[in-house]
Amino acid sequence: MYGQGPPITVETPIMLGLGGSGIRTFNRFTSVENGHAFVHVLTIPYNFSTKSQIGIVMPFVFNKPENTISSSGLGDLTLFAKYQLYKIDDIGKTFRITAKITQSIPTKSSSLQDPNNTKISQTYIGIIVGKLSTKTGIYGDFGYNLTNSGLTDNIIYNISFGFPLLEHQYPQKQVNLYLEVNGNYLIDPKRNVNFLSPGIQWIPGRRFLLEYSFQLPIFQDNSQINSTNFRSLIGIRFLIN
Amino acid sequence: MKYLLSITILLASLTISLPLLSQNKSNEDITYVRMEVKGMACAFCAYGMERKLKKIDGVENLKTDIKKGLIYFTTPSTKIPSRAILAKTIIDAGFTAGKIEFSMEPFDKEPKSE
């Protein structure tokens, strides 16, 4: 009778259901010291085997920097591939490890206000780990992000705890709460940014969910650059068949 | 007159017994299946599993109990999928197959229909 949805701001190693043949789209509003950005992100994954998935992330960016002209357009495109390295299943629970590699392709509309739209080519190699039962879900992703253009590489680390809020029934009406931490550690110069991201997810039926996350910086020592005030994400995921 | 009475009784008997015979035949034609699916711990995981099963000819009345990792369905006895096919379907959906049982009677504690 129980069952959870995927984490909101953290990757999932489970490439089923929405991960396999669905579409994820969300709007993220980022408020920074010198302006704000609104990004509409569309993610389309495709499973070409039980263990393998490829996909594309397409952000549409609307920038509003302070004291300068607004801009908008297609942001950095990101191609990704996932491969399941390890899986152990039991009744109502699973533990999985998946490798992930992404390649971002910058576009003219990239945004310094949004973390995924930095106008530089980036290659990310990471691991996604998830332990999911019918009562709790713990997810983590950890990876190294290589940048070109002489900018610093960074280590990205995210963790998510998910709890069903209600005693829900499959397939109807599930409400899940998430507490997530998003981290980004810059190698040179050494700087660290952490967000605490509580979120809520509503699953009204088999093929559709709504989610909201509020990301508040709890630690950022890059304040001399352009510190983030907060980020807010609202989105939907749905299966196309 | 006696002949007509006999015909009438015969027709009346047939009228009463045919639906009952048909009902018994219908029950005999249905096989109940219960499958243990390990790793099915999320709502969309269950939907993915159901979607794969629905592609198998004859699979009807699917019900899922995520907590117990069980999927129930019925199938006409003439179209019973083999254990091998069902196990492969579970694996192809990304899960691990457990016990697969067939029965001529409904299983106890099946989840209620929607």
- CATH A-level architecture of the domain at 30-103 in chain B: 2-Layer Sandwich
Assembly status: heterodimer
Fourth-level CATH superfamily of chain A: monomeric porin ompg
The CATH topology of chain A is given as: Porin
Summarize the structure in words.
The complex is a heterodimer of chains A (241) and B (114). Chain A starts with 17 loop residues before the first helix and ends with a strand. The longest helix of chain A is centred in the first third of the chain and has 4 residues, at 18-21. Chain A is built from 2 helices and 13 strands. Helix content of chain A is 3%, strand content 65%. In chain A, a hairpin with a 6-residue loop joins strand 8 (137-147) and strand 9. Chain A is mainly β and 241 residues long. Chain A is globular. In chain A, strands 1-2-3-5-6-7-8-9-10-11-12-13 form a 12-stranded antiparallel β-barrel. Chain A has one domain (18-239): Porin. Chain B is elongated. Chain B is 44% helix and 26% strand. In chain B, strands 2-3-1-4 form a 4-stranded antiparallel beta sheet. Chain B is of the alpha+beta class. The interface between A and B is medium-sized, with 36 and 30 residues.
Write the layout of secondary structure elements.
The complex is a heterodimer of chains A (241) and B (114).
Chain A: H1 18-21, E1 22-32, E2 35-47, E3 52-65, E4 71-74, E5 77-90, E6 93-105, E7 122-133, E8 137-147, E9 154-164, E10 174-186, E11 191-205, E12 208-220, H2 223-226, E13 228-239
Antiparallel strand pairs in A: 1-2, 1-13, 2-3, 3-4, 3-5, 5-6, 6-7, 7-8, 8-9, 9-10, 10-11, 11-12, 12-13
Chain B: H1 2-29, E1 30-38, H2 43-54, E2 60-65, E3 70-76, H3 83-92, E4 96-103
Antiparallel strand pairs in B: 1-3, 1-4, 2-3
